[in-house]
Amino acid sequence: MRLYISIFTPVLLSLVLAGAADAQNYPLKPIRIVVTSFGSGPDLMARLVGQRLTEAWGQQVIVDARVGATGRIAAEHVARSAADGYTLMMVTSQFAIGSALYDKLTYDPIKDFAPVALMASTPFVLVVHPSVPAKSVKELVALAKARPGQLQGGTSGAGSPAGLALQRLKSMTGVGITDIPFKTIVQAYTDTAAGQIHFTFTVVPAVLPAVRSGRLRGLAVTSLKRTPLAPELPTIADSIPGYEVIGWYGLVAPARTPPEIVVKLNAEIGRAMRSAEMQERLVSLGAELAAPASAQEFGSYLAAQIEQSRQLIKASGALPD
Question: Dmax over Cα atoms in the chain, in whole Å?
């Protein structure tokens, strides 16, 4: 055994030193950030952070759209890519929802990815049509209890962020609300504004003009704390302690990506996200800077988000499309 160690220890040491040198020199070639769609929030976020990484490191960052199967095609591609730090994936709350919704995935959402950085979060706004006699979350809950099953909440499906927001509201209050699924959240928003349904959850930039003009009434945001995007609105958690359902953006890499490279990416992405220019751009996406988090902390957050999604999906009875 001693002979075995004496022979191979120099080899192992050289591999460790080579890995450290690779991390120190990283990146030496272009980096790809895989996204699941064109022109979406994740696509724009990837381009924004990619530009900052290019400026910092002098290497081109390419945004590579792998569209289809609700993000599963992109995730499988990244999971099977080389674990060298040159392939990353922009993940969002939809990644957690999809991981909980589909039983038979060709990848493991935890074991096959190395968390890199949590970048930003996106609260949703609970809005009602002005004809609804509720000016607060407490009043909406009381109204739903007085009229079980009569209030209609629009979502883009039980397996969508808005659908989970509605399910969490129902599960934490015990109210009977009818979920009206639409193909897109834009349709739910449009029908709420037209008075065809009573309320919906939607992103801040899309709804604030209608709220401030009186076409819709904003009741609260879904984050634990008030958002600077709409500081006049309280949180649902003010009325229902512990309530939170938010969107978020993060980056992952293939599992076994060298930890030194992950740490370097995490630090540079953090610097990019904290820049004044980036924070201004986040506002246009309806997002705000996430609290600083290590790669390990993001990994714990991702696992918790998948488990929360699994519980809410099970309670809602949602099925894959």
Answer: 83
pLDDT computed for residue 9 by the predictor: 53
CA distances 129 to 84, 215, 219, 256, 270, Å, are 51, 7, 10, 50, 39
pLDDT digits (tens, 9 = 90+) for 187-231: 999 999 999 999 999 988 889 899 999 999 999 999 999 999 999
End-to-end Cα spacing for the chain = 56
DSSP 239-254: TSTT----EEEEEEEE
Strands (E), 166-246: 178-181, 199-203, 217-221
In sequence order, the β-bridge partners of residue 33 are 63, 88
- pLDDT of the residue at 15: 45
Instruction: Write down the pTM of the prediction.
Output: 0.87
Instruction: Spell out the residues 6+ positions from residue 146 whose beta carbon is closer than 8 angstroms to its own.
Output: none
Q: Are 197 and 153 in contact (CB under 8 A)?
A: yes
Tokens representing 297 are 């902390």
Sorted by where each starts, the structural domains of the chain and their CATH numbers stand as: 29-122+247-316 (3.40.190.150), 124-238 (3.40.190.10)
As a whole number of angstroms, the distance between CA 129 and CA 44 comes to 31
pLDDT of residue 206: 85
**Within 10 A of 131 (CB to CB), how many other CB atoms are there?**
8
